[in-house]
Every structure is written in C-alpha cells, then in structure tokens.
# Entry
Amino acid sequence: MSATAMIEPSRSEAGYNFAYLDEGTKRMIRRAILKAIAVPGYQVPFASREMPMPYGWGTGGVQVTAAVLGRADVLKVIDQGADDTTNAVSIRRFFARTSGVATTTRTTEATIIQTRHRIPETPLREGQVLVYQVPIPEPLRFLEPRETETRQLHALREYGAMHVKLYEDISRHGHIATTYAYPVEVAGRYVMDPSPTPKFDNPKMDDCPALQLFGAGRERRIYAVPPYTSVRSLDFEDHPFRVQQFDQPCALCGAEGVYLDEMLLDDAGRRMFVCSDTDHCEGRRADGHVGTGDAV
Amino acid sequence: MLAPGFADPVHDAQGTFRAVMDALARPGLPRRLEAGLEPPAPLTPELAAIALALTDADTPVWLDAGLAAAPEVAAYLRFHTGAPLTDDPARAAFALIRDPARCPPFVRFAPGTPAYPDTSTTLVLALDTITAGEGLRLTGPGIDGTTRIALAPLPERFVGQLAENRAGFPLGIDLILTAPGRVAGLPRSTAVTES
# Structure
C-alpha cells in the first residue's frame, strides 16, 4: 500500500477491528475516560494493552484515541508541534489503516488531535478533543517513588512536597527553573502533570473550550481536564508563574508569541528559530506572512 | 424471543459512548442519543444503549425495582452484555434506574475510596424530559460560567442529595440522565442549586 493510499479515508486494513482495539478493551478505556472527566486531574488506573509500537511512542494516547474515535472524526497527530515527524506520521498512518478515518494536518479541521508534548498555537474550539501522550503521569513521582504513598498524598490533597521542590528551584537558581511538565492544579483540587509540554503551553490548558484527555500506556493511567475548567500553574506570590519568552520571531513566518524550535543548519553551528507548530507556521506563510529567514 | 442488540455493535457503541462522554464533559448540555434499540419494557432504549455500550463482565449492574421485576430485562442485559446483576447498590459499577422518583438515596451507592474515587457507582436514570436553558442552576468543570437544565421526574430531595454528593468530592456518584432521544451528564464535580 502506498503512502498516499494510507491517508485516504475509508480504506482501512482488513482483519482488524475498527481502530485496532477489541471492543472489550474499548469499553474498559471508555469507562476510565468517563471517570477521569468526572474527577478532573485524578489519575484513573486502566488495563493498558500491548500495542504494536513500543512504550514511549504514545501507546497511552493511542489507546485513548482508539476508544474515542468514530467514523465521522477527522484526526490530526502532532509530535512536538509537527505533523511530519516520525511519531506523528506513524500514529496517523496507524489510525488511517486500522480505522479508515480522515486525517488532516490542519488544527481547525480536526475533531481529535493526538499530541506528543505540544498544544497547537491555533486556539482549540468546543467539540474538539485533545489527546496527550504521557510518559510519567504522576507529578509527585520524582519526590515520592511509592505509588501507595502518592495515592495517599493525592487523597489528602497534600502537595507540600511539590511546593518545596519549586521553592528549592528558587533558592538554587533564583527562579522556578522547571520549564516542561510544569505541575498544575486542576479545578482547585488535584495536582496534575500536564505531560512534558513546555510550560509555555500551560496557560492554553486553562478554561480551554476543548476536552483534554491524557493517556499513559506504560504507567496505565488515564486522566482528563473537561472543557472550561480552571488549570492553574503552581507558583508563589513573590515568584508568579511566567512562560518562556523568545527574543526574536519565527524566522520563516515572523510569528511572535509562539513557541520556537531551534534548528541546527550546518556543522558550523548556524541556527534558526522557527515555529514548533508546523501547521500554524504553514498557515501563516500561506497567508503571506514572511520571516527574515535569517540564521543566527 | 430475545430482542436484538445494536445493529452495528462497533459504531453504535462508539456513538453511544461519545454522546455520554460529551454529556459528562459538558454538564447540563443535552446530547442526542439515537439508540436504535427496542429492548423489553420497562427498559428504555436509552438505558439499554448505555448498558450495551459500557457494561460487561467487569461491571456489576444494579437494577431498580421496576426493572428487576421484569425477568425479560435481566435476560436481555445478561445476554447482550454479560454483566453480573447485583442486589447490592454499594457493589454496583452501574445502576439503571427506570423510576427516578423511587430511586434509593444516593448514599446507598458506592462513593469510591479516597485513594481510588473512580471505584464509585454511575447512576443511569430514565427521565421523561430534559430541557436545557431553564430549571436547576449548574456550575463547575465543563461549564462556561453557569448553565441551567430542567429535569423531570426527579428523585426525592434531588438538589439536597447532590449538594451532599458534591461536598464529598472527589468521592461521589456520577449521574447519566436520559430522556427519549437525549442524554445529559451530571458528574460529581458539578454544583447544582435551585434556580
């Protein structure tokens, strides 16, 4: 089957159930998703399955997407903001082959967006579902390795250790040095790991019109942030949460206020800073926006 | 003869789940639920669709008195879902309630545990009407500001029971409300007050 045929709608691989997973597994995941929505930020255990890709490649996100996906959906998959990197391409083809759903790279056209470590720059809208691939769902894991203890800490809403960690950042570096997987408090109750998205994206999670679902395959956890739910990045009154700033716009499309990737251009170390969100960058260039094209 | 289940088990189950997911994600905003089922009375098509989409051998199901009194209902659910039926509401993963006015107090169902609040009962109620934009006032996750929804008929002391349920958060029961062709969600995170 050629690459073009794979992304055509309604040409699914024979012999597989729709979206690969068997119906019993989908039911189990669907029940977990409903509980996750009812208790925002709480990590629901689920019986994660072996998937035809290794752990670390988004098996949790893939299982959540497979359970939610329907024939009428339009699927977009991004990896660090890009639609055209290995992880995104392989997962998009996986669903095109096993479900036959339409795929897209356009954020505005997608009904389900599976993401590894970015939130699209284009604001999400009501009815969209953003599915995050999560490696370590437990925000307290590096402070307390025992699952039995972290369960208790969440039950007691005892998040002092997390504040101590952020405080130690300040005492050591003068500022909160955590730049990704920056802990958030969801709906005023659970502290949650937003997955290793840059903290730049944390404000987009707050009061977002789209449903946000998180799947951790190896760690067997699903959690959720319903639409229009408060997501607050932890901070201190005298050290308020702040996002990264970039001192130049995207070299390709000139966008400011977006997250930039550093691209190495040659062995001499010339670099260029460009949009991490490829769809956003392409859309701006199609609208006639031009960057300087300068390397630094 | 046993009434048939979903005509298209994969996609009908997905469509039912998606309606329920959207309903719980946006409390107070009813969704269309076209079940396409003709289950034995007094089971409604919407209760049957949700049972077929979400329950199986892993989920004990509790039936209210009206449903439990009809052996065809138990036979239908057992055949199509394989779910064990339980007499103990505190052991149920799902409770199907055909007659909301005679629903047992919510505290008799499982609220989950502090470490695992997901081990709670989800109540699925068959109402006559769900009307958005009037009635009870809802706030909480999934709601842009406030929203309103009118429901009938309701269990006794509905708002008071929900306030107690909300006070126990993150423990508590979740409600999936159905009416002919519609489904709405009231997860435990929603604060409900009289208008």
